[in-house]
Amino acid sequence: MSRLKLEFNAGTLLLREGSGAGILPGVFEALAVQDDRTGGAWRAAAYQYAPILRLAKQHGIEVDDHVRDYGPLDLKLFSAFTPMEHQKQAMERWKAAQARGTVVMPTGSGKTYFAVRCIAAVNRPALVVAPTIDLMVQWAEVLKKFFHQEIGMLGGGSKEILPLTVSTYDSAVLQMEFIGNKFGLIVFDECHHLPGQINRMAASMCIAPYRLGLTATPEREDDGEEVMEQLIGPIVFRKYIDELEGKVLAPYITRRIRVELSEQEQAEYQLARKTYTNFVRRHQIDFSDPDGWGRFIAMSARVPGGREAFSAYLRQRQIARCGRAKLELVWKLLREHCTERILVFTADNDAAYQMGEAFCLPVLTHKTKAAERKDMLERFRKGEYPVLLTSKVLNEGVDVPEASIGIVVSGSGSIREHVQRLGRILRAKDGKQAVLYELVSEGTSEMRVSDRRRQNRAYAQRRMHFYHGDND
Amino acid sequence: MLTKDLLRFKTSGGYAKPSFIKPDDPKLLSLAERLIALFENSIGSIREELDEQLDHLTAAYNDVKLARGLVKILLDRAEFSGCGELDYPAARHALFLRSAALLGSEQCPADPAEYRAKLMKNEPVLKNGVYPDLPENERLIAVKKTFPKELLERYNMALAQSLMLYSDGLDCQVCAEDQGALRRLLKYLKFFRLLFRAELAPPKKKGDPPMIRLQIDGPASILDNSTRYGLQLASFFPAVCTMRLWQVSCGLKLRTRTLRLRLDESSRLVCHYTNFGAYIPEEFRMFQEYFNQTSDRGWTMIPRESYLKLEGNLLTFPDFRFRSDSGTEIDVELFHQWHKTPLKERLDYLEQHPETPLILGVDRVCLKADEELKERFQARPGNFLFSSFPGVENVIKALNKKEQAGGDGTFKLT
Q1: Do A39 and B346 touch (CB under 8 A)?
Q2: Would the ipTM clear 0.90, i.e. be above it?
């Protein structure tokens, strides 16, 4: 019988002929290329490990497998509870797809517990990859709780590989050439981050035959969905927010509030906007062009009037995003909901810190040091801090089930960001009624931005009107 | 290196032409001097103050992007501290507890300014704000000594390297006569975990020195020619500039554009890696010394070219060459514990070309738990095992074995 030798090499696979000359490239032609830098071996991407083994089996080729650096585990699930119906369905579909695929479920619907059950079902060393350090730490805590064993961590200063390990995308990319053969299952949390040119290496350099992607918002504007399908597998299960509202998720209301700028701010906004747009028009800068923003920055640095135009751009944005009227309204809402747990979202750090200073409240951004960040989240969960201000770091994943009020002071036009922010307050709790406020400065570009980000069925019934006292 | 917004280059005929500066231009030297002085005089200042002054200085210069690029290089050489002795997180925690209590009470003022004033009254630590320890408030504590001309040279190198971040591989030609430098170059290649194909390049015209062509990329580059090894390639590039004669060419993927970059020694780029002297690792030096003391064993260590020409124009780079009293020349190549894959590749080659005058020394750890590899390795006469580094006796024994086993004996470099 012909024999194929297979090895893991720096995040790739090397294929060599054992006995039976002529087996390479043969049936592996579509998956491997000859590498004349390595004495004629053939090389394939690590994520092709399972397909290569399948092909070999189909064609009766015996494999001398030196790839895997792991074996089965003896995982036991502690404090397990009966999965919900949608979790059971998702598990069936994922298993039916040979345990390779993406599951799309809204925030708060139990994605993490679903993944825990997948890890237990596969019973092989597993690596969970998450986009931020906060999320990574949260995953480590959850895995420790359910499996009663030490959890390895890659990222945030830790570099310990254990059978169950959690990592950030950044650290996974850096380490995968060394650890890509140590896991049988890889879980990508918030997997819409995976298709980025660098992040995708975390998936392509890993051999894990079993793959799970988790997200609430898989849509991307580039070819990212194809990349996810190639590196993780197809979408095998999907549930939307409105399908689970009132059952698995808390019932929710969204209120969009128009905020009038003061006369002085209005005048200042108009003037700044004019200076900025005139400059853009004069120099024919087209922001729909991928290089448009870069051109604006470059021209504002070198042509006369450029610096003024750039300052005007920043000023008009600042007024629209966090003017005095918005600050006053935020304060009013904080007082109205002072017995509840409130998350306040801004588009940028400056606005978050501006409010943090004005109201003496905790602000959590990427600038917050790890220890204080952990402390703030814990105290918010416990209720010692009823309000947490943040720009973008809490948009995704971080578990704050007690939050019931969200105030979007400003944000981008991203639908994903807006859906994720809504998701932060939807985790069900007895008697909880979630409310998401969205503050929009009237007569500014924010009106259009707000319309753009609400193009999702989570807002479909609640999209058109502004709040004047009734639910939107 | 420079961020994308600070790249300065022109394009012409599909080529990216980096806008290098003249390191001896008096105007630029003066700018560099002022920037360095500003950093040195700002030790102890907060980052925000430094940024403000740098903004003034760079805005006044007619090429703002260039000035900001110089600043970026100095910032990379600067060290900032935390914000002093005070425990700001603890003070904030106390403040947030007070603010939570006041917000939930009936005494909470409707006016936020009044609310703030009430909370901050008698606040001992956070008098100047709730967040005085943000990065912009960190203090500059040190900046590595930099000379004006050196800063300008570093800028040119950073500009070339920053473009190479977007490359999918380097095609280099270096002078084959530059033996010491070539050896160091290959060490850097190993250090940055890059792979290469090496071959002798035919001289362009009669009288030109021989050149070695190295096509350099990463293991997965042949699967998709992405820029995933860009950082490793860019970090390796300064090593090329230590060669007497060199050329580098690469493709660049800059967002929507595909360009080529071509540089050579006329770019006058200066390598700033400080450990690029004629460094010989301690264990090599000791081995040489001890071997020379025991040279009455029938073998002499002889100076050698860095490479051994294999089939076709392929090259390999052994560690030592020895000549026996009878004139046989044999090369020795060492493989350490992390060199399992290169070892397999070399064995593949030697099995096909047993006449090659090369013996291999391998660290025992490298063969641990791989009986098949061990068997293949030991099948070749003269190959030997060592722990950490080979002993002289061990090597002499291996050389004798190889010489007795025959083979073609004398090796001649083409």
Answers
A1: yes
A2: no
With a threshold of 0.80, does the pTM exceed it?
no
Option in A39, A362, A386 nearest B349 (CB) = A39
- Cα separation, B131 vs B177, in Å, equals 60
Shared domain for B286 and B268, answered yes or no, is: no
β-pairing, B211-217 vs A42-45, is unpaired
Q: Is domain A252-261+323-462 in CATH 3.40.50.300, yes or no?
A: yes
* Whole-Å CA distances, B232 to A44, A46, A48, B170, B291: 21, 20, 25, 11, 37
Cβ pair A339:B104 closer than 8 A: yes
Provide the CATH number for the domain formed by A85-239 in this structure.
Answer: 3.40.50.300
For A:247-306, CB contacts with B below 8 A are: 290-291, 294, 297-298, 301-302
How many CB pairs below 8 A link A and B? Answer: 122
pLDDT digits (tens, 9 = 90+) for A121-142: 999 999 999 998 888 989 999 9
Q: How are strands ordered across the β-sheet holding B9-12?
A: B9-12, B15-18, B257-264, B246-254, B170-175, B211-217, B195-201
Rounded distance between C-alpha atoms, residue A261 and residue A326, angstroms: 8
- Contact state of A10 with B349 under an 8 Å Cβ cutoff: no
Residue B150 falls inside a structural domain: no
Does the CB of B103 have a partner CB in chain A at under 8 Å? Answer: yes
The one-letter amino acid at B283: E
Q: Which domain holds residue B302?
A: 282-405
User: What pLDDT shows up at residue B175?
Assistant: 85
Domain spans in chain A, listed from the N-terminal domain onward: 3-66, 85-239, 252-261+323-462, 266-320
Of B95, B104, B129, which has the smallest distance from its Cβ to A338's Cβ?
B104
Alpha carbon of B129: minimum distance to chain A alpha carbons (Å): 7
Element (H, E) at A213: strand A210-215
